Amino acid sequence: MKKIAIFVEGQTELELTCRLILEIAGRRGVTLEIKDQHRGSLRFIEMRGNIQAGQAPEIYVLLVNCNTDNQVKSQIRDQHASLTANGYTKIIGLRDVLNRPGFPRHFPSSGNSVSQTPLAIAA
């Protein structure tokens, strides 16, 4: 069984990540354990995906909602030793990038978008 831990910034990222993993996996062989971070401790919320009693999933994903951007890195750092000791081979952090220095918002009318040329639609 492959074990992956993903720490996200908030509820939107949590739902996006859950849906993405389940869609890619086709709900076969993937179990998601969802936890919530509150005042530094993790509490169990729910299990999703392919949950069968007595049968280990092919991929087990621990998904933690850190509830704030600055807790993603802190939680990864705090949980790293425990996660690796428990067999997690990948630890991923997902944070917001908008409104950070070096990551401006890109709107077509702002002048800072990747391309100012509208895409042609094939007929």
Give the topology.
Elements: E1 2-8, H1 11-25, E2 30-38, E3 41-49, E4 59-65, H2 71-85, E5 88-94
Parallel strand pairs: 1-4, 1-5, 2-4
Antiparallel strand pairs: 2-3
Molecular structure report:
The structure is a single chain. The protein is an alpha/beta fold. It has a domain at 21-51 and 75-94. The chain has helices at 11-25, 71-85; strands at 2-8, 30-38, 41-49, 59-65, 88-94. It has a 5-stranded mixed beta sheet, with helices on both faces. β2 (30-38) and β3 (41-49) form a beta hairpin. The longest helix has 15 residues, at 11-25. The chain is globular. The model is unreliable at 112-123 (pLDDT under 50).
In short:
The protein has 123 residues and is an alpha/beta fold. It has 2 helices and 5 strands; from the N terminus they run E-H-E-E-E-H-E.
Number of helices: 2
Distance between the termini: 48 Å
Rg (C-alpha, Å): 18 Å
The quaternary structure here is single chain
Instruction: Indicate the structural class.
Output: alpha/beta
Helix proportion range: 10-25%
Q: Total strand count, please?
A: 5
Which sequence of strands runs across the widest sheet? 3-2-4-1-5
Morphology call: globular
Spell the H/E element sequence.
Answer: EHEEEHE
Model regions low in confidence, pLDDT < 50 over at least 5 residues? 112-123
